[in-house]
TrEMBL record:
InterPro entries: DUF4743 (IPR031804), NUDIX_hydrolase-like_dom_sf (IPR015797). It comes from the Eukaryota. It holds the Pfam family DUF4743. It comes from Xylaria multiplex. This is DUF4743 domain-containing protein. Residues 48-139 form the DUF4743 domain. CDD domains: NUDIX_Tnr3_like.
Length: 333
């Protein structure tokens, strides 16, 4: 492993994944960036649901059911049409289908026919939106991440089961990813999503995952889309991932069951850290691994200079409605 590293430290990796300006570190840069974007809102509610690039807002704002205000501070893009989940979702669908057919936005070339929710300030689902389209509006995406791992004879972490994404995958082709991961669709709970993704990507039975997987918190970050993600560069993508660990014995091994997964490798922590610093790991999986390292004592205050900042940065406070979001009940509104 002689390749030079892309990143000099794990904190640099965190900064790369969570790259939207932080108000606590540089308020001037944060304010300037926020005021350069359009704030996405629904109806008369003043809550900002996402940040939208000007070149996107100018096109969406001309569509039926939308209003754009270039004179307010901050500037706003408002979904003014619709009065409930279904009517708002239909306006969103018609708008995005129009742009898809016109081939206006490259990100829509990866249309998946999979709906994701947009939550309001009270946690209700305001509308559903095609998965490929949600970065255009800058709304929070919710996902799940499973890390399966084994222990050695001394009880320490022997290795993490890491998937290699297919070289022809739609995004992050060829990079390392979690044992299983995916976005949480509309009307599905995170753990149900996890079981589906583990079965689809790693051939883990639902019974195995239900018995062995353990919820261990969340990640939150604010990422700017780059070239390797496909589509428009610079779209804003805040995200929350629900994390799950699953200790497995040596005779339980993941097997590829998905065309987007090239294969799996049991990777020792030191090797995986090297891969992260080399830039060979999908951004949010890199954060998930760092969180795993923190929780399992692989990195700590005596061997990682930036331990305190890293630990705090894995749980970014997002400017959008997240605190009211609950999966206890059906919150369609």
């Amino acid at each position: 492993m002689t390749q030079s590293n892309r990143f000099k430290s794990l904190l640099e990796v965190v900064n790369h994944c969570d790259d939207f300006p932080l108000p606590g570190k540089d308020l001037k840069a944060y304010t300037a960036r926020v005021n350069s974007l359009y704030h996405f809102k629904v109806g008369r509610d003043t809550t900002t649901l996402g940040f939208v690039l000007p070149e996107v807002a100018s096109k969406v704002g001309r569509c039926s059911g939308w209003d754009i205000n270039n004179k307010s501070v901050p500037k706003t893009l408002t979904l003014s049409g619709g009065h409930d989940h279904d009517s708002r979702s239909e306006i969103i669908r018609a708008t995005m289908m129009h742009f898809k057919h016109k081939r206006t936005f490259g990100v829509l070339e990866k249309w998946r026919s999979e709906l994701k929710p947009c939550y309001g300030p009270t946690g209700s689902v305001l509308f559903s939106i095609e998965r490929a389209a949600f970065p255009l509006l800058g709304i929070v995406a919710y996902g799940v991440m499973l890390v399966a791992y084994t222990r050695n004879g001394q009880g320490g972490i022997e290795g993490l089961w890491v998937q290699r994404r297919s070289r022809s995958a739609r995004t992050h082709a060829g990079l390392l990813d979690g044992t299983a991961a995916g976005g949480v669709p509309i009307r599905k709970k995170p753990f149900t999503t996890l079981m589906s993704e583990a079965e689809e990507e790693a051939s883990f039975s639902r019974e195995l995952v239900a018995r062995r997987a353990r919820a261990c918190g969340t990640l939150s970050y604010f990422h700017t889309r780059r070239k390797e993600m496909g589509g428009e560069v610079g779209l804003l993508q805040p995200g929350v991932h629900f994390l799950y660990d699953m200790e497995v014995p040596e005779d339980v091994q993941p097997r590829s069951n998905d065309t987007n997964v090239e294969g799996f490798e049991l990777m020792a922590p030191d090797r995986l850290k090297w891969e992260i610093l080399a830039g060979n790991v999908k951004p949010w999986f890199a954060l998930a691994v760092i969180d795993f390292f923190v929780r399992h004592g692989i990195i700590h205050e005596e061997n990682e200079r930036d331990f305190v900042e890293i630990s705090m940065r894995l749980h970014r406070h997002l400017e959008f409605p997240v605190f009211g979001v609950s999966f206890l009940t059906n919150l369609l509104n």
